[in-house]
Structures are given as C-alpha cells and as structure tokens.
Design goal:
The complex is a heterodimer of chains A (525) and B (250). Chain A folds into 3 domains: 173 residues, 3-Layer(aba) Sandwich (D-Maltodextrin-Binding Protein, domain 2), CATH 3.40.190; 101 residues, Periplasmic binding protein-like II (D-Maltodextrin-Binding Protein, domain 2); 226 residues, MetI-like (MetI-like fold), CATH 1.10.3720. In chain A, 56% of the residues lie in helices and 12% in strands. Chain A contains 20 helices and 12 strands. In chain A, strand 2 and strand 3 form a beta hairpin. Chain B is of the alpha/beta class. Chain B has 10 helices and 10 strands. In chain B, helix 5 crosses helix 6. Chain B has one domain: 3-Layer(aba) Sandwich (Rossmann fold). The chains are: A alpha/beta (525), B alpha/beta (250). Chains A and B meet through helix 16, helix 17 and helix 20 of A and helix 3, helix 4 and helix 6 of B. The complex binds adenosine-5'-triphosphate and magnesium ion.
Chain lengths: 525, 250
C-alpha cells in the first residue's frame, strides 16, 4: 500500500491537500479554547527549546551536579510557556558566550538566562520582558547611602568577573571621566563570594550585583550588608527573553507572558523562587553527584573562550615569570659561584634562601595584600593581579633557578674557562660561547621541570583574582557544578601545554649530540 | 735601537713570586728565554711548574717581581687578550670545548679575538689540523676522538692564534704510550719551526732531544738552569740528582 502511494504523484498530491485541510480544521477547532493557542514558530515539532547559562541563582542555576537540568525562575517560566503551547520543554545549558550564537544557529528557540534587556542586544534579537530587576550597589552596614552614582568616582568597586556589570561600570566611568572626575576602580573576582568578601574586609567601597542574586547573599550574611543605591539605569530594568527577530513570534510571546502574569502563574513563581523577597531556599549545595560525563559540557568548556583565555593567561604568566627569573638568576648564580666573599654575595644568599623558604602562595598574598600597606603605590590601578603574579612568581622562581644554574655552572669543567681564557677570549665570550652552552645542556631538564611546575603554580594566583586557567575552571564549576567535565577540560589544557614543552625539550636535547659518545656514533651511522 | 728587538729575550722574569694565601708557590724566580729557545721545566710534583708557566700568560697573575714578554712589561694593566694572542698554551687535559666540533674549536678564538673571517679562520685551522695529522677529523666532536687526537686538536687550536710563544703543561701526561709518540713527534716538528717554547714534561728523552735548557724547580724555587746534556749527566745540585734518580727508577 505504502509503496503504491509513493509511486503515484497524483496520490501524493492528494495526500498533502488532505493534510492541509486537516490542519485547518484542527486550528479552527482550537480557536475557541482559552488555554491552548497556536504555538509560535520557534516551537518546533512540539518542542520548546531554550538556551540558558545556569549561573545566576535564583533565575537559572544548577542545584545538583547534573548541568543538563538547571532549575530556577526562568526554567519554570519556560515550562509554563511550553505548557501553554502544549509543547515539551527542552533546556540546553552552555557558556554565557554561547547563548546568542546558539540562538542564531537555531539550536534553541529562546534564550532564557536572566539576561538584561539592552538596546545593544535588541539590534540583533527581539526581546520580551518578563521580570523587573535592578542593579544594586552594595556596601557595608553603616556606609551612608548614596544619592547618585557620581559619588562612586575614584572609589573601588568589586564585581564578579565575566558579568555585564563590567561593561556597565565602564560606561559609568566614561561619563565620570568626561565630567572631569576620577573613574571608579573596578576589581574583578572570580566568585561572588569573593566579591562580597572584598566589601566586608573593607578593601573596596562597594560591590555591584543584581537584586535577585543579592537576596541570596543577604540570607547568608544577614545584616552585614546594605544597599547603597539602586541606580536608575534606563536600559537596565528588565530581564528579557530573547528570540530570533520575528514580529509575529514576539507579539505572541508578549501576550503569553501577559497572560501568565494575569492568571497568577508568574506571581506564584516569583514567590516560589523568592525573586522579590529574602526568603529563598538554599540553591546549590549538597546535591548528589551524577555519574554521567556530559560530553557537551566538556567540549563547550574546552572550546570556550573563557578556558582559552585562562590558558593564555596561565601560559603568559608562566613564560614571562620564568624568563624574568632566568634573567635574574644567571648573574646571581655567577656571583654566588665565585670564590670571593663580598657583601653582595651575602645579600644574594639571603635573597635566595628567603624566597626558597617562603611558600609561593604566601608570597603572592604578601605582595597583593601586605605590600600595599607599606608602599601605597602598589594599591594603585596599574598594579594588576597579572603584574602582581608575575612579580611574585619571577622573584620566587629566580631563587629556585639560581640553584639550578649554580649546579649547572659548577658542573662545567673549570678547565673550560682556563682553556678559553688562554685563547684570549673575552669574559663575555668565555661565558656566552664556552660556559653557557655547556651549562645550558645540564640546566635544561631541571629548568623545563621548573617551568612545568610554574605553569601549575600560576593557579595559586586565583587567590589574588588572576583569571588564569584554574580560576576560570573553578568559576565554571561553582556555577555549573560540572566538576568532572570542567576539571577534565582544564586537565586537557594543562596536558597540552606541558606536553608541548616536553616535546620542545626533546627537540632541543637532540642538538646535544656532542655530550654523548653513543649518540654521536649512532647519528653518524 | 730597532735591532735590539731581536736581541731582547722573548721572556724575561725577575724576582717573580706567586702566593696562594700564605703558601708561596713561586719563590723569587729569575730566568730569561731567548727567541726560538726551547725550555723544558722539570721538577717533582707540587714544585710549582704549572704555576710558573701559568704566570707567563697571566692566567695565574704573579704577585711580586717583574715579567717581560717580547719586551713588554706584563702586569695588571696589560690587556690579557693581547698577551694571550702572543702566548699560546696547551693543557694536560686538553680543555677542548666539547660542544664545538674540532674545526669550531680551532676557529672560535681566531674569529672572536682576532676578528678573522670564517673562511680565513677555517683555512688556517685546516692547515694546522693537517700539520698535527688529523685533517679528516675536522667535523667530529671532541668526545669522538682518542686522547692523543684530542691533544693534537688542542695544539692546532693554540697554533691557530699564531702565537710567538707556546706553553705546554704536561701535554702527554694523560696519554697512553702510543699516543705520546704521536704528540711528541708533533712537538718535535714545532720545535724545528723555531717557535719559542716552554714545556713542562716528564718525557725525559723528549726533553733531552729538544730542550736548549732545562729549568729544574723544587718547592717553588728554580734550583738550576742548565743545558740538558749537563742536567742529565752531571746535575749541579743534590736535589736535581735525587729527582733524576727517582725518575730513572720508573
Ligand atoms: N689555586 C691554588 N690555590 C692554592 N694552592 C695552589 C693553587 N694552585 C697550586 N697550588 C699549590 O701550589 C703548589 C704548586 O702547584 P703546581 O700545580 O704549580 O705544581 P706542579 O709542579 O705543576 O705539580 P704537578 O707536577 O703535580 O703538576 C702546590 O703545592 C699546589 O698545592
Ligand atoms: Mg702541574
């Protein structure tokens, strides 16, 4: 039967006409129903797919470790919309930066992720407001309230890195500077906890957050904080659902939201998720672990710009620090290896022992938190976590590198220096042409080891808010609880970097054929 | 005045002492070496032979006394590089640069110190490698050569600087008997070419054949300076006699 249908064009034609008629009949029949309505075009095959970045409690966040099942106000609103359109809800979670590209690529019909409605985003997408919100500037209890954002001029403000607050504050800074006032000093921290902590310890004047998220903090911190100002930022009042530009869809979504508002669904969800008061249930903790490895989360982490950026910071901090360390350590090693006694030598011995003895983490914290107390210049803006880390790590690493260099230099036969100076070579040539090349071969393996160590030690710098690879990973993990996937992605980055340098070491060592009789012979053969 | 340049001794040492802390390694030594002369320094171990010849190119600067080379007073004001272009040295342990090929060992100093072009330096090096009998080893690394071959490279390397004086510090001491023969024959050849030579060695036959005079040292002092015939047959001091007796026992 079926095969005969496909053989007859006429029959096929008839069939599609019949189907069309059926649809018309069905729509006509549904028209009278109050709850069900025709689904917008972004609902495809009976499925409403939304994209979300579950990092903003209580709007969208992951309670357990299963990233594919975020919860929150947004998710419940999406479910209500799906019910309305008699569709099944499918939620895709991803990195924030992936949301809008995924929407464009039609991987989802809506982006619902506690995203502020902004004109910039509306250039490319349609938006429908579903929740009022406000940006809040929060200070310590006892700090007088502000009347205008201008009063923040020259003050330091902590924000969570990767959020839109940074651009927002950047714009305010532009107006401050234009008005001849000093800009706010913006400090970024990898976690919301750290942001709040900066205010509590008094390092920064205030922090910036979203009111809905603040309710979470208020519950933990009780009366230690207080809202200094809720600035009236014109395009910063609403969370919006984003969709691909389509006037009909937008109108339909708009009316669906209005309907949910009037029938009491949205107010009920607001109180369920405490979007407007301070009695939210605890969101994230204590969930059971999922045994599933979510390859999507893993690959999206692996290919995320956040990870790439983190890896680049890790790599550049390690490289720059090690290059500085080597540059400092070579002359120190030469002085320390010389037989003469001198004050300089004693001072350098002290330097080396001090920095070898002190834990690297302590040195980082000391440079970031303690040194500015004595030298206010290090409190200034130019002294970024990046610079602070490089300063701490290069000093620390130079102490270790001195020992490697000393060992390597003294492993070079003293006859080499004698032979070279008997030939009339200058001190410079003796070092650069005779001693260093031989010491280099000896120092290379331990130096590469040190570098690999350093590459990993950079992760300590997350304590001073450097956005290196592990810090990035931890933020993602704290938000998504995708421990395995994010750690695995970070591991991949570390492995790739380390293996690259090990490969480089092998390549360089191949050029040291002169040091090994067997190698030379086999090369010649 | 100008004719005197050739009459002046190549090396002239007066009242020269060298101290290592309290220890007197060289004790007021005096001697002259004329142009083209071959001097062999003999003496028991620790008598200061190495110290003596190292003061001559100032890789061990002397503390007291005067040193003249080629009519020039050598002291802390002397440009060490100029001095070492004039005075070449060969060590017991060769001190070749292991990370450089034989040829590179030879051309490094001519290029870096004398600013020769690579082609010039290479041509020169090949000539001296030919002279020391290992022209075909130029591209090998020192580690691939036998001890005797390495010492020949060291001699060629020193000759590449075209020095006026050659210092040898026990050049054959680390070699086996066969290799010694080769190196000694090269030194014979060099001697014939008339380069001023100061050589510390225990090769008695070689000393006898080559040396114009023998300097015999003990405890940092020069005990006697005599022509080899006299030294080996009728040494003037008991110490020299004892030394010779000991040498003959082995
Ligand atoms: N750098 C130094 N510091 C202290 N003492 C030294 C130093 N170099 C040499 N000496 C001492 O000076 C003395 C003379 O040493 P030198 O090497 O000149 O002896 P030598 O005659 O060459 O002996 P050998 O036949 O064993 O080579 C020795 O007692 C030695 O211990
Ligand atoms: Mg000696």
């Amino acid at each position: 039967m079926i095969s005969s249908f496909s053989l007859s064009p006429l029959m096929r034609c008839f069939r599609s006409v019949a189907a069309l008629a059926g649809i018309l009949v069905a729509t006509a029949g549904l028209h009278g129903l109050a709850l069900a309505e025709q689904a917008p075009s972004f609902v495809q095959n009976g499925v409403l797919t939304i994209c979300t970045n579950p990092t903003l409690p209580p709007m969208t966040f992951v309670k357990g470790q299963d990233v594919s099942h975020p919860e929150g106000f947004d998710i419940d609103v999406a479910q209500a919309l799906a019910n309305r359109w008699r569709a099944r809800l499918s939620v895709i979670t991803m990195d924030f930066t992936g949301l809008f590209p995924s929407l464009s690529a039609q991987r989802c019909g809506l982006v619902m992720s506690g995203i502020i409605r902004t004109p910039a985003r509306e250039k490319s997408f349609d938006a429908v407001t579903y929740q009022d919100t406000a940006l809040v500037v929060v200070g310590r209890k006892g700090t007088p309230s502000l009347t205008s954002m201008d009063e923040l001029a020259g003050k330091s403000i902590a924000v969570e890195s990767g959020t839109s607050y940074i651009t927002r504050l950047g714009l305010i800074n532009d107006t401050l500077v234009a008005a001849g006032k000093p800009p706010m000093i913006i400090q970024q921290y990898p976690t919301e906890e750290q942001v709040v902590q900066q205010v509590l310890i008094g390092r920064v004047f205030a922090f910036v957050s979203q009111d809905v998220e603040l309710f979470f903090r208020m519950r933990q911190l009780g009366d230690k904080l207080h809202v200094l100002i809720t600035p009236d930022i014109p395009d910063y009042h609403h969370f919006a659902i984003y969709l691909r530009p389509n006037a009909a869809d937008q109108t339909q979504l708009q009316s669906a939201i209005s309907a949910l508002e009037t029938d009491g669904t949205l107010p009920a969800l607001r109180s369920k998720w405490s979007v407007t008061d301070q009695s939210t249930k605890n969101g994230a903790a204590n969930a059971t672990s999922s045994s599933m490895f979510d390859w999507n989360a893993f690959f999206s982490a692996l290919t995320s710009t956040a990870f790439l950026h983190g890896a680049l910071i890790t790599l550049s901090v390690a490289l720059i620090s090690h290059i500085i360390a080597i540059t400092i350590s070579v002359p120190i090693a030469i002085v320390l290896n010389s037989p003469q006694k001198s004050v300089l030598k004693i001072a350098l011995e002290g330097y080396v022992s001090l920095f070898r003895a002190a834990p690297t983490l302590l040195q980082l914290l000391f440079i970031w938190n303690a040194v500015p107390q004595f030298f206010p210049i290090f409190r200034e803006q130019w002294f970024t976590p990046f610079l602070a880390t490089i300063l701490a790590l290069s000093v620390n690493e130079s102490a270790y590198q001195v020992e490697i260099n000393r060992a390597a230099l003294s492993a070079v036969d003293p006859g080499q220096e004698l032979g070279a100076s008997a030939l009339g070579l200058s001190r410079r040539d003796i070092y650069w042409r005779v001693i260093f090349p031989q010491a280099f071969r000896i120092a290379l393996p331990p130096t590469i080891n040190e570098f690999i160590n350093l590459l990993k030690i950079t992760s300590l710098a997350s304590v001073i808010s450097l956005q290196e690879l592990l810090a990035v990973t931890q933020i993602q993990v704290a938000r998504t609880f995708a421990f395995t996937e994010y750690y695995a992605a970070a591991l991949v980055y570390y492995l790739v970097m380390v293996f690259f340098f090990l490969f480089l070491q092998k390549r360089v060592e191949r050029r040291f054929a002169w040091s090994d009789r067997k190698k030379v012979v086999s090369n010649a053969a | 005045m100008q004719h005197e340049a050739t009459d002046l001794p190549m090396i002239s040492v007066r009242g020269m002492s060298k101290l290592f802390g309290e220890f007197v390694a060289l004790d007021r030594v005096d001697f002259d070496v004329s142009r083209g002369e071959k001097i062999v320094v003999l003496g028991p171990s620790g008598s200061g032979k190495s110290t003596l010849i190292r003061t001559l190119n100032r890789i061990e600067p002397h503390d007291i006394g005067t040193l003249n080379i080629n009519g020039k007073l050598i002291n802390e004001k002397t440009d060490p590089i100029q001095l070492r272009c004039m005075v070449g040295m060969v060590f017991q342990n060769y001190n070749l640069f292991p990370h450089l090929s034989v040829l590179e060992n030879c051309i490094l100093a001519p290029m870096r110190v004398k600013h020769m072009s690579r082609a010039e330096a290479t041509a020169l090096a090949r000539r001296y490698l030919e002279q020391v009998g290992i022209p075909d080893q130029a591209d090998k690394y020192p580690i691939q050569l036998s001890g005797g071959q390495q010492q020949r490279v060291a001699i060629a390397r020193a000759l590449c600087m075209q020095p006026q004086v050659m210092l040898f510090d026990e050049p054959t001491a680390a070699l086996d008997p066969e290799a010694i023969v080769g190196v000694v024959s090269i030194m014979d050849e060099l001697a014939e070419q008339g380069i001023t030579t100061v050589c510390v060695t225990h090769e008695m036959a070689f000393s006898r054949r080559i040396a114009d005079r023998i300097i015999f040292m003990d405890q940092g002092k020069i005990v006697e300076i005599t022509p080899p015939e006299t030294f080996f047959t009728t040494p003037q001091t008991d110490r020299a006699q004892n030394f010779l007796n000991q040498m003959l026992r082995y």
